[in-house]
Amino acid sequence: MHHTTDNRPDQELSRPALLLAMEPGLAGRLLTDHHRTRLAALTRTDPGLVAHDLATPTPAVAAALADAEVLLISWGAPRLTAAVLDRAPRLRAVVHAGGSVKPYVGKACWERGITVASAAEANARPVAEYTLAAILFANKRVLHTAHRYRALRAPHNWHPDLEGAGNHQRTVGVIGASRIGRRVIELLRPFDLAVLLHDPYVDEAEAARLGVTLAPLDGLCAASDVVTVHAPELPATHHLIGVRQLALMPDGATLINTARGALVDESALLPELVSGRLNAVLDVTDPPVPPPGSPLYDLPNVLLTPHIAGSLGGELHRMADQALDEVERYTKGLPFADPVRPEELDRSA
Q1: Can you tell me the distance from the alpha carbon of 76 to that of 24, in angstroms, rounded to the nearest whole number?
Q2: Could you tell me the CA-to-CA distances from 155 to 50, 55, 63, 91, 158 in Å, in that order?
Q3: Peptide bond connecting 287 to the previous residue in cis, omega within 30 degrees of 0
Q4: How far is the C-alpha of 326 from the C-alpha of 317, rounded, in Å?
Q5: Are 74 and 30 in contact, with CB atoms under 8 Å apart?
Q6: Contact call for residues 236 and 242 (beta carbons, < 8 A)
Q7: How many Cβ atoms from other residues are within 10 Å of residue 168's Cβ?
Q8: I need a labelling partner for 25 at 20 to 30 A (CA). Which of 197, 206, 225, 331 fits?
Q9: Distance of CA 162 to CAs 76, 134, 165, 208, 228, Å?
């Protein structure tokens, strides 16, 4: 409730106060002028005030936090601890313009009845698009052929080298029916590919609706030309892909990881890559940045990217669109379209 002694016009008071909180520099890339105009119409906010630290806030941030009914957060936001929330007595909602809320939101938020929404759906799209491109290129052996062509620099009969290559009746194994995993499955539909899925929470009826065939993890690895990882990082999924799973993958198969580096046992993967038996497309590694001497940087059968599959550049604006849609729903008294439910966090990213 707003103070009755406040002298601001009723129309202004009817709009909830909102505070931005994210890593330095991100707000300028995330929010366009259109987004800032929309925020100003929906809420009382200072779009130039972005909180980077809520534990020891500046006076301006402390005042805004004390008044805030909504927090609009994104990557690099401070964790919303009990001590932080004690400084935000009016806070009712948190909207995350990003994917997983786990680094930012915890037990303290749920205990206070704060509702949370995430733009994870918007962030899933570019990851799935990256994965689709990686699958199609892997089956076409684009990376291998490009490296050979660079070395040869001369006419060559490529057909014997590429016997069995291509995207006709190949098998793709998807590990995890997460948002991203499901969107990858959706994007694969127009192609002449068989799709296997491993996910302990998906039954046969749901698999049929998705148009995939359920498979145990080892069976999926043994049968797939490409294995793509979309499971959450949980204690149960640590090194989910290890020595046995990698050994089961056929010669020349490709492992794609856009999820989290720790899902793959890199000490088991490296020998398979160094030998040339397997290929990999790795957007995430463990550690997040491989040491300078890592073979991953130089191997011709590895495409290594620095965690760019998720939203970047203009794709950030799609996340901002979804986040502001949720802010608008809140201002209208509507439930979030894509709420985060605490009971689902123990098996999601």
Answers
A1: 8
A2: 57, 64, 69, 67, 9
A3: yes
A4: 14
A5: yes
A6: no
A7: 10
A8: 331
A9: 44, 17, 5, 33, 22
**Residue position matching structure tokens 């990881």:** 257
pLDDT digit string, tens, across residues 299-323: 999 999 999 999 999 999 999 999 9
Q: What are phi and psi of 281, to 5 degrees?
A: -120, 110
Q: Which residues contact 258 (CB under 8 A, 6 or more apart)?
A: 127, 130, 131, 180, 228, 229, 230, 283, 284, 309
Q: What is the DSSP letter of 145?
A: H
What angle do the packed helices 179-188 and 120-139 form, to 10 degrees?
50
DSSP 6-26: --S-HHHHTSPBEEEE-STTH
Q: What are phi and psi of 72, to 5 degrees?
A: -105, 105
pLDDT tens string 234-249: 999 999 999 999 999 9
What is the residue-wise DSSP string for 98-137? SS--TTT--HHHHHTT-EEEE-HHHHHHHHHHHHHHHHHH
Q: Are 225 and 170 in contact (CB under 8 A)?
A: yes
Q: Is 21 exposed, middle or buried (0-12, 13-18, 19+ CB in 10 A)?
A: buried
Residue holding tokens 């909207």? 95
pTM exceeds 0.85 for this model: yes
Give 75-92 pLDDT, tens digit per residue.
Answer: 999 999 999 999 999 999
Alpha carbon dihedral 289, 179, 263, 168, in 10-degree steps, equals -90
